[in-house]
């Protein structure tokens, strides 16, 4: 992990399934709580540069063996508000093409502090 560690917020400030956008040095960063684990994404959509982390936290649908679809990854994706591109919060991968990724940062929790490693 990077030695450039910055306290982004307190753990209680980001409830499960929610995000908080913070300014860290010159970066706007979204801090997300996915099932009690904290993750950080650069607040820039790699598609057209929109404020990615301002989009809704959501899930998506996946095909089943039959004709049905099932809802999955609830509260583990962020959807860009401009064009609807969906990214996995943990990996930064674009769902349609995993070779396209939103920038992620390593995160650690130190006591009650959520620390982002730039």
Automatic annotation (TrEMBL):
SUPFAM superfamilies: ISP domain
Keywords: 2Fe-2S, Iron, Iron-sulfur, Metal-binding
Residues covered by the Rieske domain: 6-116
UniProt superkingdom: Bacteria
Name of protein: Rieske (2Fe-2S) protein
Organism: Marinobacterium rhizophilum
């Amino acid at each position: 992990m990077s030695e450039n560690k910055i306290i982004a917020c307190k753990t209680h400030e980001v409830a499960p399934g929610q995000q908080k956008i913070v300014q860290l040095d010159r970066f706007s960063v979204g801090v997300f709580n996915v099932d009690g684990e904290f993750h950080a994404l650069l607040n820039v959509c790699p598609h057209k540069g929109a404020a990615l982390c301002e989009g809704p936290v959501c899930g998506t649908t996946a095909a089943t063996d039959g004709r049905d679809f099932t809802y999955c990854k609830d509260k583990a994706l962020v959807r860009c508000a401009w064009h609807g591109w969906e990214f996995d919060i943990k990996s930064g991968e674009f769902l349609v093409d995993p070779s396209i990724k939103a920038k992620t940062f390593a995160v650690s929790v130190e006591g009650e502090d959520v620390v982002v490693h730039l």
